[in-house]
Each structure stands twice: as C-alpha cells, then as structure tokens.
Amino acid sequence: MSRNAIEITGLTKTYAAQGNSPAKEALKGIDLTIPRGAIFGLLGPNGAGKSTLINILAGLVNKTAGQVSIWGFDQDVNPRQSRAAIGVMPQELNLDPFFSPRGAMEVQAGLYGIPRSQRRTDEILAMVGLSDKADAYARSLSGGMRRRLLLGKALVHHPHVLVLDEPTAGVDIELRQMLWRNVRKLNDDGMTIILTTHYLEEAQEMCDEIAIVNHGEKIVQDSTANLLARLDAKTLVITPESAPLNGLPTIPGVTATQRPGGALAFAYSRAETSPGAILDRVRDAGITLRDVATEEPDLEDVFLALTHAQTQNLAKSDR
Ligand SMILES: Nc1ncnc2c1ncn2[C@@H]1O[C@H](COP(=O)(O)OP(=O)(O)OP(=O)(O)O)[C@@H](O)[C@H]1O
C-alpha cells in the first residue's frame, strides 16, 4: 500500500478550443507526490493551473492524460474508492438555495451512501460553527456561513484527504481562525490536508511542504523550511541614534538603503559576508547604534524569485 496520500504522474489537461478562444494547455505533464499526514500547500499565481488540478482530483474535470492515485486508488481503475478518499471544499459558494445546512449535509451523506446510523451531521455542524443555523434556509446564510457549510459538506464522508481551495479568500478573522483550528485538529487526527492560498504568509505558517506551479508546470516542491533556506539573501536593519553625517558606508557586496523613518537596511548574501563585518563598517563610519535586527526572506520572496525565473526562461525559449 502506498505511503502517499496522492500520487500524480504526467498529468496533462488541455481545455478544448471554444468559439474564438484557442485550446488551452492548463497542465503540462505534472508529477506530484503528497505524503500522508501532511499539510500541503499548492501555490501559484492566477491561472497557474491549481483549480484545474484540484478539480481533477475531485473528479469534477476529466484529465487529458496522466495518472492520478488517491490513497492508493487509481482514479481510472477504482473511481469510487478514489473519490471516497477525498473531500473538497471548493472556491465557489455554490449551494442549493432550498436546502438548510442540515438538509444539505444529509443529501451529501446520501450521495456517498453513508447509512443514517453512521451520519455525523450534528457533530460536523457544531465543528464548523453552524449548529444554530442548522435549519435555516441556505439562501439566508451569509458568505461566511456558506463557506462553513462547504467545509462541513467536504467532511461528511470523513475523507482521508481534505482539499481546501482558497478557503480564506475574503473571509473575516473569526472564520479564518475557525478554519485553521479545524485544519490543525483534523490533521492531528490523521487527515492529510491540501491547501491552495494566495496568502503566502498563511502557507508559510500552516504547511509542512509546498509545491509551486506556474504556467501549468510544477517549478518546485520541497519542505517549507528548505524552500525558505534556498534564498541566501538577508537584511540587517540598523536604527541609528542620529542620521549618519557622511551618508551610508559603502560595503562591497552589500546594498545599503535608508528606509522612511531613518532605519538603515543592509541587504547581503550570507555566502559573501556576515552581520558582524557589516556592523564593524557601520561603527567605523561613526554611526552609533540604537537598535539592530535581521530580516529573513519569507515565502513571498522565494515565490517571486522562482516564478520570475521560470517566466524569464519561458520567454527565452520562445525567442
Ligand atoms: N473550463 C475552462 N475552459 C477553458 N480554459 C480554462 C477552463 N478553466 C480554466 N481554464 C484556463 O486554464 C488555465 C488554468 O486555470 P486554473 O483555474 O486552473 O488556474 P488557477 O491556478 O486555479 O488560477 P486561480 O488562482 O485564478 O483560480 C487558465 O489559463 C484558465 O484560463
């Protein structure tokens, strides 16, 4: 039995040409392995192919080529088992307006063939904070409540893998906290979580491992810690007692800038110099230090560096 939650090889999706729009190759042969028990981040700019990939996993979009296996079940060989192994909280708030949350959960449980005695409707509604709206009409629910219900529906069949597609886009702090609390708890209980988000801070905080896709290709997959360590750039930020009289010291290999408010930022590469050497030159220049701090690169820097490099390579290969 595979130890991976998801195994994808050579996944390709070409949307057929329609009217004036030409055919679009949204996924260009992606290989992706997601370990069991992970909180996995799938990141990429708009149009990179994330939703296409997730919709293929959910069985909502047919792939053009490649293999997809969920919890050891090949989608083409064991479609029912592979579908039962995954629950997806979609991006769009598409709910039947005539069902109450309880009704919608019961219908979903019926679709998955869960016997009444094994349904956990009330427990899940409580978990997503919808107990007091259990019997309200879906059309009277706010956007945030609809999202809660979509999460509840994704959990009805207690899947091994939970996919959250942009779950926190435009939601308030309370809902965001509820989501992350539940994600951590479900993960602690053994559920594998796959998450797409535009908020890189969130991915950095939540995910153990991350894949970045761009233009339908996977450009990197690594642990969050390794991705952050890839960037060698660091910044030393010095708050001086008073503005430097003779301007900023010039230090080879270091880019010095003055920030609004007076702090001096020295961007350097760890491979080339050390904070100690920079501080020596700053003191030599007669600058008295009030405060010193270092800034690490964050996921946003890694993301920009990688997607930018890929876009440049693609442009070169087009020439
Ligand atoms: N049904 C469709 N028919 C034709 N083209 C499509 C269809 N769905 C998506 N595309 C195209 O495929 C590419 C990938 O889209 P996809 O929605 O998978 O990206 P994404 O990474 O999820 O972006 P976003 O973050 O904006 O949702 C885009 O160029 C998009 O326009």
UniProtKB/TrEMBL annotation:
Recorded superkingdom: Bacteria
Entry annotated with the keyword ATP-binding: yes
GO MF entries: ATP binding
Domain ABC transporter: 6-240
Keyword Transport applies: yes
Alphabetical list of SMART domains matching this protein: AAA (SM00382)
Transmembrane residue ranges: none
UniProt entry keywords in alphabetical sequence: ATP-binding, Nucleotide-binding, Transport
Gene3D superfamilies per record: P-loop containing nucleotide triphosphate hydrolases (3.40.50.300)
Pfam families, alphabetized: ABC_tran
Protein name (record): ABC transporter ATP-binding protein
Species of provenance: Meridianimarinicoccus marinus
